[in-house]
UniProtKB/TrEMBL annotation, chain A:
This is 2-oxoisovalerate dehydrogenase subunit alpha. Heterotetramer of 2 alpha/BCKDHA and 2 beta chains/BCKDHB that forms the branched-chain alpha-keto acid decarboxylase (E1) component of the BCKD complex. The branched-chain alpha-ketoacid dehydrogenase is a large complex composed of three major building blocks E1, E2 and E3. It is organized around E2, a 24-meric cubic core composed of DBT, to which are associated 6 to 12 copies of E1, and approximately 6 copies of the dehydrogenase E3, a DLD dimer. Interacts with PPM1K. GO terms for cellular component: mitochondrial matrix. InterPro entries: Alpha-ketoacid_DH_E1_comp, DH_E1, THDP-binding. Belongs to the BCKDHA family.
TrEMBL record, chain B:
It is an enzyme of class 1 (oxidoreductase). GO terms for cellular component: mitochondrial matrix. Its cofactor is thiamine diphosphate. Gene3D superfamilies: 3.40.50.920, 3.40.50.970. This is 2-oxoisovalerate dehydrogenase subunit beta, mitochondrial. GO terms for biological process: branched-chain amino acid catabolic process; response to nutrient. CDD domains: TPP_PYR_E1-PDHc-beta_like. Its EC number is 1.2.4.4. It catalyses: N(6)-[(R)-lipoyl]-L-lysyl-[protein] + 3-methyl-2-oxobutanoate + H(+) = N(6)-[(R)-S(8)-2-methylpropanoyldihydrolipoyl]-L-lysyl-[protein] + CO2. InterPro entries: THDP-binding (IPR029061), Transketo_C/PFOR_II (IPR009014), Transketolase-like_Pyr-bd (IPR005475), Transketolase_C (IPR033248). GO terms for molecular function: branched-chain 2-oxo acid dehydrogenase activity. Heterotetramer of 2 alpha/BCKDHA and 2 beta chains/BCKDHB that forms the branched-chain alpha-keto acid decarboxylase (E1) component of the BCKD complex. The branched-chain alpha-ketoacid dehydrogenase is a large complex composed of three major building blocks E1, E2 and E3. It is organized around E2, a 24-meric cubic core composed of DBT, to which are associated 6 to 12 copies of E1, and approximately 6 copies of the dehydrogenase E3, a DLD dimer.
Length: 412, 392
């Protein structure tokens, strides 16, 4: 489905910082009208007149190359692009690749590793790896999924709606793309603080169809926000394939339309993702402008545990990505070639991971649910008189009809 | 927007759990656990799922519309859409993921039967879906738009409230989009949490120019949906998603309509009038039996069916007879549609009232995940309200 660029594959950002700035300025500055010049004076565009009728072809931006560092076998193609990472055993142990978001782990870990811990993350809902990289404990992941008394979100949201104030990860919301304009606002506020921070905003190619995505792109460009838009283009929005989602060259092609620097990377290449995010971060902070990274990948898993994707795509297609082009396999090839990893390591790591996860499952499952009074808090900063009455009314009701409510499963 | 997270989208093979309300893990997580670790399973099962908060009460088999077939609610919707596509060559059906049958399977088989120019996916954009539908309707097509969850209808709020609802009025009836019907899954489902549980009808009830309809089961769903499609005004048709598989009835296979803006008395009674729509009708039916058995109180149960414009005549007549009114919905009580009914009945039936009108509704909070069993206006809360009205 995706065009994969071979060859050198190193997508150079086309312009230097200064060149970009002056071009952007030229395009956005209010011009003084000079009618003696045979040039268009329209304030909305900077261009020349032409005297032949021609529509711009829709493919004028197409075939945006896919930047990669490793080939599918995990070999570094151009040594100058090798990020020279040397994962310690600890680092590896902290990151479980095997839990969720199957097939998209490269985009999570590669981008998370390129950021500073203080950078603010606005996720969609398929970025558990980013939070994991920042050190969110497995038990808290489980607590959220089980909505137990340890859940930082107090049991109010469905599974995978993680959030962490300490780790600068804004709590996930189910509605799609709502985080995109919010990320622009947050980046604007952060720019004014001048604390060398950026905002990163994750979303899928489906969410990019929402009106909110347009608003977020346009706001961040016009208001010069230090923001990295990280699009995970995984081929499907539930059942809807990309050719029913858009007809341009993916999401990266939209960047120039908004006056935004853009790059497409191989999302299954954790180093390509890392390099692109690192450079985007550096420049976003230095130049106060948004960057768009489109990471091409494939959603190997179903949309959710309630979805059966065989109803809309072939098993062969899924198998190709699972067996032939998987981000973890590629990294494993790379590590194995350097003697950092072996079949034995893999086996014992899988075994240990599974054990750790199962134990966390069991702990989370045994834990009580949050106190029922938390139903009413946090609607406002303080309990309103009306909510207070409703809370008391529920308490009286439960007292009278307690045999009909599962109160013993909840904290007192 | 977002059709967002759509976490519990039901794929082709999965079953919608009706038993709802699980203090255990999210059901599918639970399933994964069972597979991996047999020694956890017994505890999980024990923890899992209290009984459903309602008992579905099927309608009698309709005799006036010809042969019937056993259908659940999503199949009756599919069947209604099938009838429409067959009889109306201008009809088109679109939305997110509708081409493969929709996440709740309401459009299964229709693309293959009628072609992909008539049943198609749109890009992921609710404001786009409704705006596109308005345009198609204004240009003469029968437009049937699906919003994947009612919780995700808000990006289309502007298109519905400022555009669809005002198209006819602002043009002096030169243009209208009466051929537009918006379908959307609605209401609680046991584990839907903030964004897969909402009942947003009251937001739209504040908007003259549209009609809002909510069925209680498969027979009603088909007849009311076909009435919405035939109606010359834009309609929003909310489908109680917890009933998609749980509600099974004998549904006529031919096309038929059930009139809009007509409430239905499901059970006659003399002491208290109970009004609801959608899933909550079944809760109140059970409450009526409980009140009869335990209190000797006779309840009249009314399914409002159309929220806007609503049938105040049927409701007021009933209250004149009983002198007491209880209205129940899952949406938060403040500003909910019960407030509108209550206000009208107070104006029309003031001297007939024997007790204050009672609203048993959701609390004024977002719809909470793990607290759903405490949040919903269940039968015990409704039963208790009846007791208080009788003893007033």
């Amino acid at each position: 489905m995706f065009s994969v660029s071979i060859g050198r594959g190193v997508a150079r950002l086309p312009l230097s910082a200064n060149e970009t700035r002056s071009l952007l300025q030229a395009a956005t500055q209010q011009k003084t009208v000079d009618s003696s010049l045979e040039k268009p004076q329209f304030p909305g565009a900077s261009a020349e007149f032409v005297d032949h009728l021609e529509f711009i072809q829709p493919n004028v931006i197409s075939g945006i190359p896919v930047y990669r560092v490793m080939d599918r076998q995990g070999k570094i193609i151009d040594p100058s692009q090798d990020p020279q990472v040397h994962p310690s055993q600890d680092d590896v142990g902290r990151i479980s690749f095997y839990m969720t978001n199957y097939g998209e782990e490269g985009t999570h870990i590669g981008s998370a590793a390129a950021l500073e811990p203080t950078d603010l993350v606005f996720g969609q809902y398929r970025e558990a790896g980013v939070l994991m990289y920042r050190g969110f404990p497995l038990d808290l992941f489980m607590a959220q999924c089980y909505a137990n008394a340890d859940d930082l979100g107090k049991g109010r949201q469905m599974p995978v709606h993680y959030g962490s104030k300490d780790l600068n990860f804004v709590t996930i919301s189910s509605p799609l793309a709502t985080q995109i304009p919010q990320a622009a606002g947050a980046a604007y506020a952060i720019k004014r603080e001048n604390m060398n921070r950026v905002v990163i905003c994750y979303f899928g190619e489906g969410a990019a169809s929402e009106g909110d995505a347009h608003a977020g792109f346009n706001f961040s460009a016009t208001l010069e926000c230090p923001l990295i838009f990280f699009c995970r283009n995984n081929g499907y929005a539930i059942s809807t394939p990309t050719n029913e989602q858009y007809r341009g060259d993916g999401i990266a092609a939209r960047g120039p339309g908004y006056g935004m620097l853009s790059i497409r990377v191989d999302g299954n290449d954790v180093f390509a993702v890392y390099n692109a995010t690192k450079e985007a971060r550096r420049r976003a902070v230095a130049e106060n402008q948004p960057f768009l990274i489109e990471a091409m990948t494939y959603r190997i898993g179903h949309h959710s545990t309630s979805d059966d994707s065989s109803a809309y795509r072939s098993v062969d297609e899924v198998n190709y990505w699972d067996k032939q082009d998987h981000p973890i396999s590629r990294l494993r090839h790379y590590m194995t070639a350097r003697g950092w990893w072996s079949e034995d390591d893999e086996r014992s790591w899988r075994k240990q991971s599974r054990k750790t996860v199962m134990e966390a499952f069991e702990r989370a499952e045994r834990r009580l649910k949050p106190n029922v009074e938390l139903l009413f808090t946090d609607v406002y900063d303080e309990l309103t008189p009306g909510l207070s009455r409703q809370r008391e009314s529920l308490a009286r009701h439960m007292q009278q009809y307690k045999e009909h409510y599962p109160l013993d499963l909840y904290e007192k | 927007m977002a059709a967002a997270a759509r976490f519990f989208i039901r794929g082709a093979n999965s079953k919608l759990s009706v038993s709802g309300i699980g203090p255990g893990a999210h059901s599918s997580l639970g399933a994964a656990l069972l597979k991996l670790s047999p020694n956890c399973s017994s505890r999980l099962k024990a923890q899992r799922r209290h009984a459903a908060h309602f008992t579905f009460h099927p309608d009698p088999v309709p005799t006036q519309y010809g042969p019937t077939q056993k259908m659940n609610l999503f199949q009756s919707i599919t069947n209604a859409l099938d009838n429409t596509l067959a009889s109306d060559p201008t009809a088109v059906i679109f939305g997110e993921d509708v081409a493969f049958g929709g996440v709740f399977r309401c459009t299964v088989g229709l693309r293959d039967k009628y072609g992909k120019d008539r049943v198609f996916n749109t890009p992921l954009c609710e404001q786009g879906i409704v705006g596109f539908g308005i345009g198609a309707a204004a240009a003469g097509a029968t437009a049937i738009a699906e919003i994947q969850f009612a919780d995700y209808i808000y990006p289309a709020f502007d298109q519905i409230v400022n555009e669809a609802a005002k198209y006819r009025y602002r043009s002096g009836n030169l243009y209208d989009c009466g051929n537009l019907t918006i379908r959307s899954p609605w209401g609680c489902v046991g584990h839907g949490s903030l964004y897969h549980s909402q009942s947003p009808e009251a937001f739209f009830a504040h908007c003259p120019g549209i009609k809002i309809v909510i069925p209680r089961g498969p027979v009603q769903a088909k007849g009311l949906l076909l009435a919405c499609i035939a109606d010359r005004n834009p309609c929003i048709f909310f489908e109680p998603k917890i009933l998609y598989r749980a509600a099974v009835e004998q549904v006529p296979v031919e096309s038929y309509t059930i009139p809009l803006s007509q409430a239905e008395i499901l059970k006659e009674g003399s002491d208290v009038t109970l009004v609801a729509w959608g899933t909550q009708v079944h809760v109140l039916r059970e409450v009526a039996s409980m009140a009869q058995e335990k209190l000797g109180v006779s309840c009249e149960v009314i399914d409002l069916k159309t929220i806007l414009p609503w049938d105040n005549e049927t409701v007021c007549k009933s209250v004149v007879k009983t002198g007491r009114l209880l209205i129940s919905h899952e949406a938060p009580v403040t500003g909910g549609f019960a407030a509108e009914i209550s206000s009208t009945v107070q104006e029309e039936c003031f001297l007939n009232l024997e007790a204050p009108i009672s609203r048993v509704c959701g609390y004024d909070t977002p719809f909470p995940h793990i607290f759903e069993p405490f949040y919903i206006p269940d039968k015990w809360k409704c039963f208790d309200a009846i007791k208080r009205m009788i003893n007033y």
